[in-house]
Design a protein that fits this description.
Blueprint: E1 2-3, E2 12-15, E3 18-28, E4 36-43, E5 49-55, E6 59-62, E7 66-76, E8 79-84, E9 90-94, E10 110-116, E11 119-124, E12 128-135, E13 149-154, E14 159-163, E15 171-175, E16 181-184
Antiparallel strand pairs: 1-6, 2-3, 2-6, 3-4, 4-5, 7-8, 7-10, 8-9, 10-11, 12-13, 12-15, 13-14, 15-16
Length: about 180
């Protein structure tokens, strides 16, 4: 058990039978009345973000989240197979559980699989990934006054906006949080 005074960004807590990760929080001490903590929480099972206000010093149950380093192997229909490289144990995760992450996952990539008491919650990707551009129209010279962009498709099938100088076969770095182009690799 911790109190709301111990909140940290990224901390995982249990509240009303659900698992939440703290996205952000703010301790507020109004001139009149008692202090409170305003927080934004992400439901670890559904991904929904909610806001919750706590009394200062209120006790909250922490959740022990396990992060196992596994390697993504392949897709088998609606299931995606990951392998522990030490024990060679394989686990399968349903596609809807990792829908956003599939945009950046490629075979043989090492990721952290997040679980709570044996229940698989999802996949924790690196902050940035490097992927190859497989389809983009040729760049047009001369239109460099504005930050002109064009659409590109990377090897995982994900589509995003990239600068005009990016060509087919280029490797680019993409932020897994925002899904946006970061830089050319």
């Amino acid at each position: 058990m911790i109190t709301t005074n111990d909140f940290k960004t990224g901390l995982t807590i249990q509240h009303e039978g659900n698992l939440y990760q703290i996205i952000e929080f703010l301790h507020v001490k109004p001139g009149k009345g008692s202090a409170f903590v305003r927080s934004k929480l992400r439901n670890m099972r559904t991904g929904a973000v909610t806001e919750k206000t706590w009394r200062a010093g209120e006790k909250v149950q922490t959740a022990m989240i396990d992060k196992d380093k596994l390697q993504y192997l392949y897709a088998n229909g609606d299931m995606h197979v990951f392998m522990n490289q030490e024990t060679y144990e394989q686990i399968e995760i349903h596609a809807p559980q990792i829908e956003h992450e599939l945009n950046f996952l490629k075979e043989m990539m090492d990721v952290n699989v997040i679980s709570f008491e044996g229940e698989i919650l999802g996949v924790d990707l690196p902050e940035k990934v490097t992927l190859e551009v497989v389809d983009t129209p040729p760049g047009v010279r001369g239109n460099t006054v504005t930050n002109a962009t064009k659409e590109a498709t990377v090897e995982t099938g994900y589509r995003l906006q990239v600068p005009l100088f990016i060509e087919n076969g280029d490797r680019i770095v993409i932020s897994t949080q925002t899904g946006k182009y970061s830089t050319k690799a």
